[in-house]
């Protein structure tokens, strides 16, 4: 049974409103991942068949391994110079937000977003979703925004527009947000949706290779360096973390997205249930957290590192030094969370 069936009323409201809209903007969170881009482009490839004007606006750059996706080249990607463009949302009578739970996630164009009188709709799967749109379909039982967008299309008049391009985009987001079905995919619905997607004869091995076996030599060497030299393991607390200095990033000619998934490296050690990464960026420390089981890294990040996300995967940031961030993390693990972690059964 589709999860979206619980949103019958919202779906009807959205669908009616969509039919009246002529100029649609699809937008996702800044620093978009495979799910944000996949959901936006999946929907884009559907809506462009309806004869409406439709644009995807990416608040910031997106990873290279997603550039081959159908429609990616037509996306308007805002850079440092264009992200303050006051006209970027002009003319839109509907703005569809995907894969984001708060309006601040649109980044630098938040003022234009708030000012726009366009009808706003949200399709999301994050916890703690804010009320900032006219209609909202959001449920954390979805693995990904892409799974949700599949059901949105499936359960409205849009279902006549399914094609290989559409499902290729949606499969990409499901694959990236579940870590290739490692997490966030316990709900049988995700496999129902993937089953439907496979009917379009997508080349799933090719998609996998384009997404995950597409790194530069620099990045692979960077990963090896970090694993050897920047990983701290605290076995008694079943915890491990990685830190990366600005100099490390320079040495390995880091490109956008290169450190993605580094936080998962220590998770491959037997017995480790909680991992973190701290990366020295230009004027802040970027943090990410991962866990196995019920240890809630969304709460952990919200409480200590100004972030959030999901139970098993979250991000955050802090304005203390890299050293201080590592120290703070170790102190939390050895202090406030020591009992929980030491006695953690997984
Ligand atoms: Mn997502």
CATH class of the largest domain: Alpha Beta
**Which second-level CATH architecture of the largest domain applies?**
Alpha-Beta Complex
Stretches where pLDDT is under 50 for at least 5 consecutive residues are: none
Each distinct ligand:
manganese (II) ion
Summed up, the helix count is 12
Q: Quickly count the domains.
A: 2
Primary descriptors:
inorganic pyrophosphatase (n-terminal core); alpha/beta; 12 strands; Diaminopimelate Epimerase, Chain A, domain 1; binds manganese (II) ion; 18% strand
In short:
35% of the residues lie in helices and 18% in strands.
Can you describe this structure?
The chain has 346 residues and is an alpha/beta fold. It has 2 domains: 3-212, inorganic pyrophosphatase (n-terminal core); 217-342, Diaminopimelate Epimerase, Chain A, domain 1 (Roll), CATH 3.10.310. It has 12 helices and 12 strands. It has helices at residues 8-20, 34-47, 110-115, 145-154, 164-177, 188-198, 204-212, 217-229, 246-251, 297-304, 322-334, 338-342, and strands at residues 23-28, 53-58, 76-77, 94-98, 119-124, 135-138, 231-234, 239-244, 274-280, 285-291, 308-309, 313-318. The model has no long low-confidence stretch (mean pLDDT 96). The structure holds manganese (II) ion. Residues 35, 99, 125, 144-145, 177 line the site of manganese (II) ion. Manganese (II) ion binds at residues 35, 99, 125, 144-145, 177.
